[in-house]
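Good day; I would like, with your permission, to put a structural problem before you. A protein sequence and the structure tokens that stand for its backbone fold form the material at issue. The record follows directly beneath this note:
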Amino acid sequence: MRRILPPEWAPQDGVMLTWPHEDSDWAPILPEAEDVFARIAREVTRRESLIVACRDEDHEIHVCRELAQSQVDMRRVTTALAPGNDTWARDHGPLTILEDDTPVMLDFTFNGWGGKYPADADNRITARLHDQGVFGERALRPVDFVLEGGSIESDGLGTILTTRCCLMTPSRNAGLDAAAVEAMLERELGAQRVLWLEHGHLEGDDTDGHVDTLARLCSPDTIAHVVCEDPEDPHHGPLLAMTRELAALRTPQGHPYRLIPLPLPAPIHNQEGQRLPATHANFLIINGAVLVPTYNDPNDEVALEALAGVFPEREIIGIDCRALIRQFGSLHCVTMQIPSSP
């Protein structure tokens, strides 16, 4: 049986969101966070469907009201009840593979990025949504392996790009070496090769180095990646080392990747003085568009222009994600795309 993990640029049926609620860490900034979610929802529903996981019936009514007031096309919205601990759909949502061109949803284990946060409810969201039929007739298969969607990138041709510091963290899958992890990626996702990054990390990132904050496959031969141009910034050296790693990688045909640098925004800190992991690499590719997180920073325009050159046939849309970054994530982290059937 042939298995592949479709790339993000493949045609999509929709995008999944898990809406924030007041009994979570979002409570102090809930209105600002909801504004960002509504903006994402509006852009998605202009092009494809949207699935929204809600905490309970009262929350569902509130979410629908928020979406309607934000001029979201409600004809393209499906809501369902699935209480969660948090809102990071990229990591608790389903990964959709194609098995001989038939979509199958994989429900990997989510343990709060190696046990850092409570995640029992989040880990049940995908199954609860599937039980309510929001994914249609697609099969759902649980996988007894801790894996977050933000930790891997796929070119749809058998290449998986990831970071060793995340996938090899003992608090995720203790006792497994790199060969065992690669075997799992081959078995479940159809990986023919795994490209491991050894360098690159953002301060404030508690995912142990998700690749979707650092380096993103944009096509089978193009990678957009974060760079730091300030030699006094502690990110400068590690990201330069990552750039050199990326430059040494080769496509399956033996060619270097085309590398697209995305400069880090200026440092953003929370009230406790902790630096937040703001990155333009946390963009979402959807049908006909790319949604790019912005931070009211001069490098926002640099990133938008760079990605416009990478995706000339898609609209490049900046979305202010300063509210999301206060909870240490960004735009890609709160979304999960649902690929179309071939």
